[in-house]
Amino acid sequence: MVSGATDRPQARRPGGRNARVRERILAATTELVARDGIAGFRYEDVAETAGVHKASVYRNWPDREELVVEALLVYAESLASVADTGDIRRDLVDFLVALAAGLETPFGRALEQAIQPAGHDVTIRALTKVLDRRVAAMQQRVNNAVDRGELPPVDSSFLGEMISGPVHLIITRGMRPFARPDAERIVDVVLAGIQSTGIQT
């Protein structure tokens, strides 16, 4: 027998049962928040929807608000990412297409409602974190574009607001489905304006 072999606890494999349970709980939480809103959110419903015991929910998230915030952040993570392929136009268009797709889901619409003045504090806290991440990702992508000469020096926050604003407007007003040509037109107009001035906005 190898000395000490029975003394060491077995290493827990990453992505094990607890990780799968957490994923199911987070998915159930996003589904319920989208359906019922924050006010009607209950641990019992999360456990039933996720197919787990209520104790599993409490054990992983003793704080109800932290569960909601984490679920919103996981779901909305894609809304905050900006790829860097070396083509700033393509990356911004892809970003708007992904943003629109997320906002057009039932959960995305619930998030949009939370932005309104009557939105729940928990949802607003999560949204604030998502927006902070989006600003940071956009800033990094724009800075890279400026360093490569793709863009003149530009305020990344302003650029982000200029291209994402029309998406939110089209989605929230239900004017029409948002398509890739919409994203291309928005990005082209904004980039043309930035390139023509050649100065920091």
Automatic annotation (TrEMBL):
SUPFAM superfamilies: Homeodomain-like, Tetracyclin repressor-like, C-terminal domain. Residues 19-79 form the HTH tetR-type domain. It comes from the Bacteria. PROSITE patterns: HTH_TETR_2. Keywords: DNA-binding, Plasmid, Transcription, Transcription regulation. Residues 42-61 bind DNA. GO terms for molecular function: DNA-binding transcription factor activity; transcription cis-regulatory region binding. The keyword Transcription regulation applies. Transmembrane segments: none annotated. InterPro entries: Homeodomain-like_sf, HTH-type_TetR-like_transc_reg, HTH_TetR, Tet_transcr_reg_TetR-rel_C_sf, TetR_C. The keyword Transcription regulation applies. This is TetR family transcriptional regulator.
